Amino acid sequence: MAKASVYVTRMIPEDNIEELRKHFDVEVNADDRALSKAELKEKIKGKDAVISLLTDTIDGEVLDAAGPQLKIVANYAVGFNNFDVPAATQRGVILTNTPGVLDEATATHTFTLLLSMARRIPEGDKFVREGKWQGWAPMFFIGLDVDRKTLGIAGLGRIGQNVARKAKGFDMKIIYTDVRRNEAFEKEVGATFVDKETLLKESDFLTLHVPLLPETRHYIGEKELKLMKKTAVLINASRGPVVDEAALVTALQQKEIWGAGLDVFENEPAIAPGLAELNNVVLVPHVASATMDTRLKMGDIAVGNIIKVLNGQLPDTCVNPDVLKK
Questions:
Q1: pLDDT band, residue 63 (cuts 50/70/90)
Q2: 2-39: pLDDT as tens digits
Q3: Residue 274 Cα distances to 248, 253, 270, angstroms
């Protein structure tokens, strides 16, 4: 009996690929680049399962190109805004993601961006490498204090909670907003629930951890940036489109806020004109979860879901549970 076939749209850790190969025929995108939609449709034709990334749009057109034998598309990511969930459910295709395993890495990365921006680390590193440093001076590369400052958290999910716990090590005052209040967590870390306007006005450092939904697109725009302190720092390691990038460039240029740290961008991999020329922003290429342990754990979940589904079992992390009722 022929083995089931799996297509992996980008390179993931070889340990995960080897585990798949124990059970199935596996093809991996050896070019390790984002495929065009036409390429993706061609590659997944006839496959029983796919491991996809956020850069892969999985809609009805793509699912139809794969064929009716396709049983599961496993996102190698916690987010799944690249999925057309109703289209997959209608076609009986199970969709999964990798929640839980990247919370700590992303929270640590968020704090890395915060500290790097506050103490102007990339700017100072560049200055030294370019041979411009002539010696110590008392007013040289003055940054911001972090200890005992106010940390605002937009979105108190698992990552937001992890960021708050790390902030306690700096004795920061923690305020947050979310769709619902979390009184148990407030007691744990001494956090205070506030509305969005208060969050914007009072935060010395504002970190974003909201999912990308129609109502969170441009969650931070021109109006919100004008409400923030001129000494405030904005950190985004959630999804690029939650920030109006053009408005952020203007705010940074006009010193409406002190700085920003960005791991994600509105139109990745492109960034807004003018952003790269600014010294008051730290830019990194969407690597919040990029630790080897985290990447392996993400692969373990994606691979495990595929093994279970292709063997007639239920997946661990289904994002369209209605499909299981069919």
A1: very high
A2: 899 999 999 999 999 999 999 999 999 988 889 999 99
A3: 10, 9, 12
Q: Which of 57, 51, 8 is nearest to 37 (CA)?
A: 57
Dist CA 155 CA 185 (whole Å): 13
Q: State the pLDDT at residue 293.
A: 95
Strands (E), the chain: 5-8, 25-28, 49-52, 72-75, 94-96, 150-154, 173-177, 192-193, 205-208, 233-236, 259-262, 281-283
Average pLDDT, integer, range 32-50: 95
Amino acid found at 39: E
**What is the strand order of the sheet 259-262 is part of?**
192-193, 173-177, 150-154, 205-208, 233-236, 259-262, 281-283
Q: What is the chain's Cα-based Rg?
A: 22
Q: Is 320 left (phi over 0), alpha (psi -120 to 50) or beta?
A: beta
Here the tokens at position 258 are 């002190």
Name, in order, each residue with C-beta under 8 angstroms of 43's C-beta and a sequence gap of 6 or more: 7, 9, 27, 29, 35
Query: How do residues 225-237 score in pLDDT, each as one tens digit?
Result: 999 999 999 999 9
Residue with tokens 């806020």: 257
H or E segment and range at residue 252: helix 245-253
pLDDT for res 167: 97
- What share of the chain has pLDDT > 90, as a percent? 96
Residue 246 pLDDT > 80: yes
Q: Is residue 49 within 8 Å of residue 24, measured between CB atoms?
A: yes
Enter the DSSP assignment of 35.
Answer: P
pTM value > 0.90:
no
Instruction: Give 73-137 as a DSSP string.
Output: EEESSS--TTB-HHHHHHTT-EEE---STTHHHHHHHHHHHHHHHHTTHHHHHHHHHTT---S--
Mapped onto helix, strand or coil, the DSSP state of residue 52 is strand
Token digits for 274? 């003018």
For the segment 43-53, the average pLDDT, to the nearest whole number, is: 97
Residue 16 φ then ψ, to 5°: -70, -40
- For the annotated catalytic residues, the residue numbers are 239, 268, 286
